[in-house]
Design brief:
Length: 235
């Protein structure tokens, strides 16, 4: 279970940009699929194949829902109020939430510098033309660099706050993200790509409320906190 949770959390952290989609004229769902390159481990492929990812969108409100073998995470983002609520639902434990406001989000980026290199290279993803963006992420404490490749489209939204909690300053909505991660000692490229965009007028504002049966992560059992890698400073 711990190994599964670690992989699952890595995916949601890497592709948190999915949860920050915004545009008033658009309401609907975006379906994503995640694959891995650079590993022959059948367990990794099987776990990713079992994972479902969907983004529910209405205006500046988004809800990313990821499920895998009964374990789920919901990431609700509000680009207007700069508020992100993450709800973790694990069988045997229940639902627990973490909320981050604008100050929390800004603090999380204080030790990182993001440089965006926008390319003319294009790719059509889920019917939308996307441009390649190479993001260099520099750790200001160690001077170490990491590179993320993001394919963005401006065909679905406008606004400057869309990526506020994932890649602040990035222009365009990420339809595909490619990032390298160490998984079980292997350098693996995780690729999350949109497969379907479905507009809908049936989505209501109540869709984006925090579940009433979720408990603050601060009150979670110690073994669950340890499983999620949460320390006192991270709560």
């Amino acid at each position: 279970m711990k190994k599964q949770i670690s992989l699952w959390l890595a995916v949601i952290m890497v592709f948190g940009a999915v949860a920050t989609f915004a545009q008033k004229p658009f309401a609907g769902t975006i379906t994503f699929a995640t694959t891995a390159e650079g590993t022959d481990d059948p367990n990794v492929a099987a776990e990713l194949a079992d994972m479902t990812q969907e983004v529910i969108v209405m205006g500046n409100n988004t809800k990313t829902v990821i499920n895998q073998s009964g374990v789920g995470i919901i990431n609700i983002a509000n680009g207007d109020y700069k508020l992100v609520t993450t709800v973790i639902d694990i069988p045997g434990y229940g639902k627990y939430y973490i909320e981050r406001d604008e100050n929390d989000i800004k603090k999380s980026f204080e030790t990182n510098k993001l440089d965006f290199n926008y390319s003319d290279e294009k790719m059509t993803i889920a019917g939308y033309e996307c441009k390649k963006v190479t993001v260099k992420v520099t750790d200001l404490e160690t001077d170490e660099d990491n590179t993320v490749v993001i394919w963005v489209t401006d065909g679905l939204m406008t606004g400057d706050a869309i990526n506020f909690s994932s890649y602040p300053g990035l222009k365009g909505y990420p339809m595909r993200t490619e990032v390298k991660r160490d998984i079980n000692g292997e350098e693996v490229t995780l690729i999350s790509s949109a497969t379907k965009v479905t507009p809908s007028k049936k989505i209501k504002s109540t869709e984006f409320l925090r579940p009433s049966d979720a408990t603050n992560i601060k009150d979670a059992p110690a073994d669950l906190k340890a499983m999620l890698g949460l320390g006192e400073e991270e709560e």
